[in-house]
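User: two proteins, same treatment. go.

Assistant:
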Amino acid sequence: MRTFRRPQASAANLTPSRFERHSVALLAVWTLTLAPGLAGATQPKAVDLAEAISAAFDRADRDGDGHLSPQEAEHLPAVAQRFTALDRDGDGKLSRKEFHQGIKGS
C-alpha cells in the first residue's frame, strides 16, 4: 500500500498558481465593472417630496377640479382633521397651493 505524504509548507509552496491569480483578477474586474451597476439597480428610487405631495393631491381630487372639497379630503384623514386650518382663504376648499403649504408645514 502506498502512503501519501503531505508536502511541507515552504515559501515555494505558498505562491499562488496561475489559475488562482487569474481567478482573483477576474473576480476583481467583475466586481469593479458589473457589481456597481447591479447594486445601483437594486437601490430604491428617491422620491421627490413635491412629487409625492402632488400625487396625493391628485388621488384625493376625485372630480379633477383642482381643489379638494371637505368630502374629498376625507380620503386623507390627516388633511381632513386640519381642513379648516389648511383652508387659508376660507373658501371651503383646498387649492393645490394650500395643500402643498399645509403638508410641507406639518
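Protein 2:
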Amino acid sequence: MSDDRDPILREFDVWNAAIQTGDPDKVVGLYATNAVLVPTLSNDVRTSHDEIRHYFVEFLGKDPRAQLDESHVRLYGDVAINSGIYSFFFGGSGVPTQARYSFVYLRSGNGWLIIEHHSSLLYKELLARGENFEKLRTESYKN
C-alpha cells in the first residue's frame, strides 16, 4: 500500500536534484510565483522569484547536496507540509551541516509547488562554526 506522504517526500528529491544541477532557474521553477523563502545563509526573506533566484545563484555556487535526516509530512487537502532536519554537504565534502527545514506545498495543475520554505542552521552548527559561520555568511550573502 502506498503512503499518501510519498509524493511529498519525492518533491524533496526533485528539489535536491535541482540544486545539484547548479542552475538557479531549475530551482526557482519549483517555487510558486508568490512563494516565501526564509533561507539558511541569509538574513533576508525572499518574496519573489527574482529574490529567490538571487539567493540560489550564490547558494548553488557552494555545490550543495542535501539529505533528509528527519521528516514529518502532513497533508491538508491541496496543502502539504514537510518539516524536519536536513543535512547539506558542500563541494563534495562528506562533512554534514544540519539545518531545520519546513517546505509548504500547494497542489497545482502541474503537481506541487513550494509556497513557503524556511531553513535555519541548528544551534549546534552555529556554535561549532563560531566566527567561521559569520565569515561564510557575510562573504557569500551580502544581500
